[in-house]
Amino acid sequence: MSANWGNNIELSLFGESHGEAIGIVIGHLPAGVRLDMEQIHWHMKRRAPGQNKMSTPRQEKDEVHIVSGIQDGITTGAPICAMIYNSNSHSKDYSELKVNMRPGHSDYPAYVKYHGYNDVRGGGHFSGRLTAPLVFAGSIARQILLQKGIRIGAHIKSIHDIQDTSFSVDIDESLLNQLSSKMYPTLDEQAFIKMQDEIEKARMAQDSVGGMIECAIINMPAGIGNPFFDSVEAHLSPLLFSIPAVKSVSFGSGEKITQMYGHEANDAYYYQGEHVKTKTNHNGGITGGITNGMPIVFQVGIKPTPSISKLQDTINVQTKTNTQIQVKGRHDPCIVPRAVVVVESMAALAILDMLG
Amino acid sequence: MSANWGNNIELSLFGESHGEAIGIVIGHLPAGVRLDMEQIHWHMKRRAPGQNKMSTPRQEKDEVHIVSGIQDGITTGAPICAMIYNSNSHSKDYSELKVNMRPGHSDYPAYVKYHGYNDVRGGGHFSGRLTAPLVFAGSIARQILLQKGIRIGAHIKSIHDIQDTSFSVDIDESLLNQLSSKMYPTLDEQAFIKMQDEIEKARMAQDSVGGMIECAIINMPAGIGNPFFDSVEAHLSPLLFSIPAVKSVSFGSGEKITQMYGHEANDAYYYQGEHVKTKTNHNGGITGGITNGMPIVFQVGIKPTPSISKLQDTINVQTKTNTQIQVKGRHDPCIVPRAVVVVESMAALAILDMLG
Amino acid sequence: MSANWGNNIELSLFGESHGEAIGIVIGHLPAGVRLDMEQIHWHMKRRAPGQNKMSTPRQEKDEVHIVSGIQDGITTGAPICAMIYNSNSHSKDYSELKVNMRPGHSDYPAYVKYHGYNDVRGGGHFSGRLTAPLVFAGSIARQILLQKGIRIGAHIKSIHDIQDTSFSVDIDESLLNQLSSKMYPTLDEQAFIKMQDEIEKARMAQDSVGGMIECAIINMPAGIGNPFFDSVEAHLSPLLFSIPAVKSVSFGSGEKITQMYGHEANDAYYYQGEHVKTKTNHNGGITGGITNGMPIVFQVGIKPTPSISKLQDTINVQTKTNTQIQVKGRHDPCIVPRAVVVVESMAALAILDMLG
Amino acid sequence: MSANWGNNIELSLFGESHGEAIGIVIGHLPAGVRLDMEQIHWHMKRRAPGQNKMSTPRQEKDEVHIVSGIQDGITTGAPICAMIYNSNSHSKDYSELKVNMRPGHSDYPAYVKYHGYNDVRGGGHFSGRLTAPLVFAGSIARQILLQKGIRIGAHIKSIHDIQDTSFSVDIDESLLNQLSSKMYPTLDEQAFIKMQDEIEKARMAQDSVGGMIECAIINMPAGIGNPFFDSVEAHLSPLLFSIPAVKSVSFGSGEKITQMYGHEANDAYYYQGEHVKTKTNHNGGITGGITNGMPIVFQVGIKPTPSISKLQDTINVQTKTNTQIQVKGRHDPCIVPRAVVVVESMAALAILDMLG
After folding, report:
1. pTM given for the model
2. Which CATH superfamily hosts domain D4-355?
3. Three-state secondary structure call for residue C73
4. CB–CB of B250 and A250 under 8 A?
5. What subunits touch chain D, counting only 3 or more CB pairs under 8 A?
6. What pairs with residue C207 in β-bridges?
7. A296 touches B at CB < 8 Å
8. Is D99 helix (H, G, I), strand (E, B) or coil?
9. For residue D321, with 0-12 CB atoms within 10 Å meaning exposed, 13-18 middle and 19 or more buried, which class applies?
């Protein structure tokens, strides 16, 4: 399926970067949920562009316009349709984009798939802008999860080769709250200063950098998920890989677990009072595809922004010749900071869907 | 969903490690496909246990018994049900497994989810043995893909800290054929010798090791996949994460791409005659969620086998006290070699499903 | 699922009768389809209210506003979002509707399901108005089908106890074109005159009537559909039962076939030149759940409009007492004529989805 | 999808009439359900052939062999695979069936769809025998529903032109129990005697008859179901149309409601103590697609058995000429009595799936 997702909640995403609007339909949410619009605005703002020199100067207020499913700020149980109008899309000549394929972008695969009929303006339906309605949906999802005590938070784990520390075994609510209140959340306060330098260096070189995001979900009940095709990992991963530029997803200690011995990788259980805990959490709160009650921890790897001003080799599909391209326009030298809330949102949607 | 998967083909997996049989129902395959049973037997053998000291001494012939959907060796178009009888399961006392939770296994999450009613003998439905019917299904899928020229092959990328080299940009059919003909495929012939030592060292220490597998799919047409929720990455990853012990999935250069600059990560296009190619393949044949015609390349990370004979701390869920456990029985000190064909099989099933 | 439907194409329906707008997201349509907007307007007009005294006097132009997925009148392959703004909804006091449940409507079940949070204005999300975006989607679907030669048309089979004749075994394109060009299509031109009288009689009595619609799909290739869970009947019926007020669906000769003998009900095959035909079509073009190449024929039964001005017994869910209600507002004494194009649209969507 | 069904529970059906076995995989059932095997045997017996001259003389014990998912008679939460071995299939020459298409059967559509590779022996995967595993699954589903107080029962509403009475508004448990305890359940005890004569008359004439079945589900909570694509009607109907030979499905008063006036068709609510009831139940317990707490009532129409010994006109697809066929073998002159428990089973599965 291309545009729809979900078993219990349902998402249908639509719109193009330079069309009238982008939006989402969210089905099957419970009725009677009073939405905290301030929270939603804050999450939208964390993703919105144009807030500093690290992100694209395109100024979009990303104001969510609710069409259906909410009355007096409370969900009615009917599908919620929310739109974000594209107010600040530059009119310009897109004829070059139709024929010269930008490396690292969807341009060429989409050209083949849609026989040249896809909207190429600003990336069309493939634009990272489409994550804005996903953050809106995720913000609602995390409000519903919070009523069950489940809380989600993420930090920038790395930018290029600059590393933040990792989550420890115990992750408390105050830490996640603190992370969610920052525009550039890192566990080590100093880490982001170095990261910022790295991003600035790339920007000055008309280049871009990527990085990793680590996310935690706490207060998950044990026993959620299924063996095989609908394990927690199998349920979360498609949503995480739906985020443009994500190229890797790993759980717990991720790739590092492949270099451990069994006696290290096995998280030993113990009773803390009546509660079952593990001494380490290399499995990220999931064994056999099912939650064990420890925090769900995962990492996503994000590639450097493909839009760079540097001259690049490519092809012209009209003339069928090799050529070069210089991608103009407003780019983020690094989308990792803006992607943090997108990752949290996807996690919230996946978990809410699994809870049924 | 727990037991079913697929949009165009359909999988339904069933059975327990020490029950009568394990099996699979495969729906919606085309009629008229003449199956190469020798290929199927070879793929089953690559996964089967008991072939040397690196794997569990449990001797299972893993003979596939076909119940329906095939007549005179040709698919009829009706669902194929295939069973593998459990001939060599040891009868023993499983009462300890009911109460003492093995670390790193599904035991505790399953205990919570199924209220203690799950079959614990040999891991029950969670057993790695359930991958045998998946290899059968995958072997059929790759035969159908081969009719379209699409070929799949994988190698052991690492065991513990011993690394094989990686696929180069061009991957030809003969290389994949060569890899698929080996029980322990590596690109660097010397690498497996060191890996074998590492596995033996772990076995002697009553411990276990994990590793990574790198897989390639060649001759994929460009234009397959969708933006967002059904990207190639989003479609492959749930099947890959359905393989027990897989904790990470990454595409192309995977986590390494997060440390590249944009001008490196962007794979530059060029025409080779009429064919569109890229000079590098850091994106693993997928941009914007859609294939670009280059080989699809991905890695999966597999944790060390959780079953180890070393004494481990854990809990007794009946007495609700802390205790220790020594996991007896026949274990693989490393499941990575046997998992290679499972990874290839899952890739074949996901790709066949996407081709519709 | 509540709001989404489809395997190959995808529908996501949203909006409320008296909210800002109603709309639909249609995913996975092929790129490059040039839409005939005049056809779409004609189909929308056939469903639109306010065209004569048989239908509700609510004047809605039902103009479709396209938000995404179409550029220069051609599909781009990205999801199409289309909205219909609610221009003519009367502001009034809906407090009675919140507590006094209208018989025959969704009011009481929705009150229980949504704990009283559902939008009750004009029926909210349950309004028959939601069929307008479905007609838009269906109109696109039938244009795509027409490129394959497949054509759909329906007639009013009965209103109350006034019967039209039935389709004969052969149904040609000109007949279906003729039916689709009428606002009140019947096979017997005289039948609708009597039907009109019947509707008028009900209107004058502050009452309402229902009826049946018979629909045909011609030039269907043989071999479409599947045994059991995705038979043509199983695939069409959920969409047909999704039309508000539909209470029965039958194929071929429908309930009449239960009173035939086997030798009558079995449609005998014969070759007409190279073409396989049947002498009768009691099975409606489907045996074993799969098309046989004859016209698919089916009937839907539509109950009388539940909104009537007559005084009716009901309950007040707030005071938990028995009471009476007089449903005010603008009602159709019979929705069958406007439902004809809705039935055709649902058929088009179901068939397009099955063709993959 | 062809072989799989379900959102919360999951069905995967397999097997051929004259293959080794037929069977089903049932996923996502709750763990810890102790199965009443006597009930299952009784339901299987109600469907089994060979019990008298009204049904095919093929003697099949239809013994269910459980492969997985049940331990000590209790569900484990893992998928249940159940098989029924085909013990009494006659070996004979099926070469005529390969080329001469039986009218009213799947033969010709399947020939086209599967390019002649489908198993034609005894109807292969299309055989009515495939309903046996569905009755097994349904029998488990109704045991789970019974724990919630929900009870299902059906009666033969008509055979050819002989009618039974219909359910009244109130349907109590004892009536449904009584119906379920009979092999030939009718409300009017005399009705079946006449029906039996009608069946016998058809049998003597080498012909067959069909009929209707009316089914009720009582003690359903109000508020189950959804508007539009997953209404109760939309959810039940695909399963009912999956039963071979079913050509119509209607709810409440079905097609009769199309001849009522609005003031008759609207079921008036009233409080009976604290309970909400309706005075009539023409809507069959469902309005707006959602249950209102009254019994769900529906009818299915079943065509006469297509296998008749009479000589019939047909085609030979090999020679591409018109020919005649006389269907030999063991046939039911009427499958309606055996279909009653199949209808109840499908209802149980659909309702259990909706309850989530």
Report:
1. 0.97
2. Chorismate synthase AroC (3.60.150.10)
3. coil
4. yes
5. A, B, C
6. none
7. no
8. helix
9. exposed
Residue type, A24: I
- Cα–Cα distance, C241 to C182 (Å, whole number): 24
Q: Percent of chain C, pLDDT > 90?
A: 88
- Closest residue in D to B84 (Cα) is D67
pLDDT reported for residue D198 = 97
**Which of C195, C248, C249, C278 is best to mutate for the D interface (most D CBs within 10 A)?**
C248
Calculate how close chain B gets to D211, using CA atoms only, in Å: 29
The structural domains of chain A, with segments of one domain joined by +, span 4-355
Q: How far apart are CA B35 and CA C306, in angstroms?
A: 58
Which two structure tokens, joined as six digits, stand for C321?
A: 């007492």
For A330-356, the pLDDT digits (tens) are 788 999 999 999 999 999 999 999 998
Measured between beta carbons, the chain B residues lying within 8 angstroms of C78 are 227
Are residues A96 and C11 in contact, defined by beta-carbon separation less than 8 angstroms? no
Separation of alpha carbons A6 and C179, rounded Å = 40
- Chain A residues in contact with B120 by the CB 8 A cut-off are none
Task: Please give the C-alpha separations between residue B238 and each of B247, B304, B350, in angstroms, as whole numbers.
Answer: 11, 20, 9
Q: What type of residue is B341?
A: V
* Helix ranges, D30-121 (H): 37-47, 95-99, 107-113
3-state SS of A7-22? CCCEEEEEECCCCCEE
What is the residue-wise DSSP string for A207-241?
Answer: --B-EEEEEEEESPPTT-B-SGGG-HHHHHHHHHH
User: Can you give the C-alpha Rg of chain C in angstroms?
Assistant: 21
Taking only the tens place, the pLDDT of each residue in C151-197 is 999 999 999 999 999 999 999 999 999 999 999 999 999 999 999 99
Query: How many Å from the N-terminal Cα to the C-terminal Cα in chain A?
Result: 20
CA neighbours closer than 13 Å in the CB half-sphere of residue A88: 14
Beta-carbon contacts of C313 under 8 Å, excluding residues fewer than 6 positions away, are C103, C322, C323, C324, D268, D269, D270, D279
Answer whether D227 touches A (CB < 8 Å).
yes
Q: Looking at beta carbons, which residues of chain A come within 8 Å of B282?
A: 303
Q: Please name the residues between 118 and 157 in chain B that touch chain A, using a CB distance below 8 Å.
A: 125-126, 130
